[in-house]
Amino acid sequence: MDYITINSIKVPIEGEKNVLSLIRKAGIDIPTFCYHSELSIYGACRMCVVEDDRGKIFAACSETPRAGMVIYTNTKKVQQYRKLIIELLLSSHCRDCTTCQKNGMCTLQSLAYKVGVHAVRFLNNKKEEKIDMSSPSIVRDPNKCILCGDCVRTCDEIQGLGVIDFAFRGSKMKVQPAFDKPLAETDCVGCGQCAVVCPTAAISIRTNVTDIWDAIEDSSIRVVAQIAPAVRVAVGDNFGIPKGENCFGKLVSALRIMGFDMVFDTSFGADLTVMEESKEFAARLASDEKLPLFTSCCPGWVKYCEEKYPEFADNLSTCRSPQGMFSAVIKDYFAEKDKEDGKRTMVVSIMPCTAKKGEILRPDNFTDGRQDTDYVITTTEVVRMIKQMGLQFTELENESADAPFSVASGAGKIFGTTGGVTEAVLRRLAEDKSYNTIREISYTGVRGFEGTKEATIELDGREVKIAVVHGLANAGRLLDRIRSGEASYDFVEVMACRRGCIMGGGQPSGAGPRTRRSRMEGMYNADASSNVRFSEENPAVRQLYDHFLAGKEHRLLHRNL
């Protein structure tokens, strides 16, 4: 076996593509800005430089390992090199760290401390740029950009959009949309994946935390929260709780202490989505029209389809997302009580997704001209609220969601991971409602992290072809195959974010492979521990359909097309 020597330690080469991977395999953490294992090698930031036995300095991320190499990761020369890079970056960077949204979580800030930068010797001669607040989902602050290119490659390679890119050269180089247009005037779908990889606050989540605190203080407002399935397996990341652990009960408790009047589980809304989407799918199969049926739960995907592949817009399900359905039901449910109490109900959705902030503003998601979801805050925003409140999250007791929507099926809970919507719909359409059916569906190929998954099942004597895809670049390739006739499906689930909502743009960042896997397992564990596994067997859902929802299904649960 071939080896390289790193700081006098022999490390075997076992198919690694670059020296950086071997350094990390040796248990050594060296700084990086522009390196992400799922993106192309860029090698621009030079923070991962190392020195060989001949005194040569090179970037470890872009160097192919060769047998016999001798490498040192922390020589005096390397230390001085990294320190100079950080100083130069800081010299052209907005340094209002104490008021920055990423204060305490900023990679540039932490690396400046790590390499020992205590002063910046260079003046900042850059002109202050205007902050782009046009998007309801994310904020772009050019003054904090360090030109690492992470957002550019993510938008192009993972999402296939290419909304932002490098412009100009040398000291005038910038990262911006074409012609420096506001994000709201581009093809941006608001997925927030650029914010996830940004090491500073050059791209960040547009926050609504202050608005929520104001509403809680207003006695004339009934503030109702709904918590998306994927939030429960990520909110604990910032409190030292094991990755992927289900923290739904603790989050319910925290929200009540904060002052929320009622707290519900969006998984109940997912059960409603299963009921309506499975009914729509069965109808389309029977008529053999508008197939394949594309899921409509992901707003980033819906916008992408409408703008990039408008010929498939009629194939999108008419169902609202779980958030949209549930908010419409909540607003209608409390309408009479609002009149009696002299209050108004405000619905706050806690989501793993930044695109949800844009979805709530779409007129086709309104009911009788009314905006049903008032605000969306992400997992990272609710973490900030918990810390502002001074709550010891790990010490909170588990509490359950409020009645009358307190029961959610396991099928609704797995919406947070790629393949979950498909699996839930298949459970609904299956004639046999036994445990064996659940196991058989889970083995059809809809689970897992592959970019595109395919499965074939039999429904009512008909062979049904299914595709599950996540990441918009993968979705684009799939749509191209369908358009050319190379592929044919009956049902297609699409999530804009790689691996689904568990890795949404509003989730805590810095999640590696083990965290992703733990979050996915956490979703399936939540399903397995549920008393109800099928959406149609949820007693609260049956009660709703039999009484309150009767005759209102289309008005409250479907998009107003």
From TrEMBL:
It holds the Pfam family Fe_hyd_SSU. PROSITE patterns: 4FE4S_FER_1, 4FE4S_FER_2, 4FE4S_HC3, COMPLEX1_75K_1. Residues 136-166, 180-208 form the 4Fe-4S ferredoxin-type domain. InterPro entries: 2Fe-2S_ferredoxin-like_sf, 2Fe-2S_ferredoxin-type, 4Fe4S_Fe-S-bd, 4Fe4S_Fe_S_CS, Cytosolic_Fe-S_CAF, Fe_hydrogenase, Fe_hydrogenase_lsu_C, Fe_hydrogenase_ssu. Transmembrane segments: none annotated. Keywords: 4Fe-4S, Iron, Iron-sulfur, Metal-binding. Gene3D superfamilies: 3.10.20.740, 3.30.70.20, 3.40.50.1780, Fe-only Hydrogenase (Larger Subunit), Chain L, domain 3 (3.40.950.10), Iron hydrogenase, small subunit (4.10.260.20). CDD domains: fer2 (cd00207). Residues 77-116 form the 4Fe-4S His(Cys)3-ligated-type domain. SUPFAM superfamilies: 2Fe-2S ferredoxin-like, 4Fe-4S ferredoxins, Fe-only hydrogenase. Its cofactor is [4Fe-4S] cluster. This is [FeFe] hydrogenase, group A.
